[in-house]
C-alpha cells in the first residue's frame, strides 16, 4: 500500500525535505496513475522534535539506507520555518 523504505532517494536525500514530509504530510504522488503506491503520507506534527529525529535517523540507517543523523534542533528549525 505504501512505497518501500528500502534504498529510498527521499530518505537518503535532503534532510529538510524529509522533515517537511513528516511534519506536513505529502500527497505529491497520490494522483499519479503511473505510480504503484498512491497513499498519502499524513502529517505527524503531533510528534516531538526528538521523536521525529529518532525515527528519521533510524530509517536513514536501516532498510539498506545509509545517511547522517537528524537531530531535534534540525526538526525544530524546519518546524519553525514558514513553508
Helix content: 40-55%
Strand count: 0
| Structural class estimated from helices and strands | mainly alpha
Q: What general form does the structure show? A: globular
* SSE pattern, N- to C-terminal: HHHH
| CATH level 3 topology | Cytochrome Bc1 Complex, Chain D, domain 2
Give the strand content. Answer: under 5%
What is the quaternary state of this protein? single chain
Q: Using the CA coordinates, give the radius of gyration.
A: 13 Å
Name of the CATH class: Mainly Alpha
Number of domains: 1
Sheet with the most strands, sense and barrel status: none
CATH architecture group name: Orthogonal Bundle
List the uncertain runs.
Answer: none
The CATH superfamily is known as Cytochrome c-like domain
Terminal Cα separation, in Å? 28 Å
**Overall average residue pLDDT:** 86
Q: Report the total helices.
A: 4
Summarize the structure.
By secondary structure, the protein is mainly alpha-helical. The chain has helices spanning 9-12, 15-24, 49-60, 72-80. α2 (15-24) crosses α4 (72-80) and α3 crosses α4 (72-80).
Amino acid at each position: 500500500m505504501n512505497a518501500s523504505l528500502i534504498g529510498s532517494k527521499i530518505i537518503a536525500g535532503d534532510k529538510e525535505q524529509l522533515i517537511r514530509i513528516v511534519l506536513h504530510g505529502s500527497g505529491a504522488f497520490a494522483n499519479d496513475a503511473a505510480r504503484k503506491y498512491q497513499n498519502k503520507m499524513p502529517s505527524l506534527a503531533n510528534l516531538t522534535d526528538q521523536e521525529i529525529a529518532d525515527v528519521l535517523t533510524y530509517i536513514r540507517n536501516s532498510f539498506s539506507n545509509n545517511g547522517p543523523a537528524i537531530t531535534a534542533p534540525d526538526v525544530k528549525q524546519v518546524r519553525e520555518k514558514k513553508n
